[in-house]
Amino acid sequence: MAMELARLQVVYGELVRSLDLRLSISRAQQQRAATWAAADGVLLGFIASARGTSVTWGWAPSAIALVFLAFGLIVAIYALWGVRIPSVSVPLKADGDGLSLNAYLAGNPEPLLEKFCKELHEQVYNPDLLDLEAKRENAITAQAILLCLALVPFGIFAALSVV
């Protein structure tokens, strides 16, 4: 019984760490998507403000860059729209938040720890969370590609504006 309890405690601790890692990955993806959207918006603002002062034949590169940047913002909205990090609950914390691990270990903790391990496993390997991570990663990659594609006509537009 003591060996089973120790094994469950180790499994529980690893599941909590895995859940923390998943949530960190999701937060990092949100930050990356927001950063790409901000860069997209800044470049869009540069082009929009410089368009009025450019020569008449410089409209094509700026229009192409604007289209790429507009698509980039659409992808950013897709990456960030209505997506929240799923709320997860950690039933036990050994550090004193809420009910302590020692309080549970005073009784017969095995069924309770098994239940908590199953709940955490379902949260860590939640298919919705895995799909969300994959969709966000694809959207972030698309944002980067669209921004890079917009830089080429933006460079041409900037060169034509200087002349």
Question: How would you sum up this structure, described in words?
Answer:
By secondary structure, the protein is an all-alpha fold. It has one domain. α1 packs parallel to α4 and α1 packs parallel to α5. The longest helix has 50 residues. The termini are far apart. About 3% of the residues have low confidence.
Shape: rod-shaped
Rounded mean pLDDT score: 77
Calculate Rg over CA atoms. 25 Å
Number-wise, the strands total 0
For the terminal residues, how far apart are their CA atoms? 82 Å
Which stretches are poorly predicted, pLDDT < 50 over at least 5 residues?
A: 95-99
Total of DSSP H or I helical runs spanning 4+ residues: 5
Please state roughly what percent of the residues sit in beta strands, choosing from under 5%, 5-15%, 15-25%, 25-35%, 35-45% or over 45%: under 5%
Quick description:
It is built from five helices and no strands. The protein is mostly helical and 163 residues long.
List its traits.
79% helix, 163 residues, mainly alpha, rod-shaped, 5 helices, single chain
Present the secondary structure layout:
Blueprint: H1 2-51, H2 59-80, H3 101-105, H4 110-124, H5 127-162
Helix pairs in contact: 1-2, 1-4, 1-5, 2-5
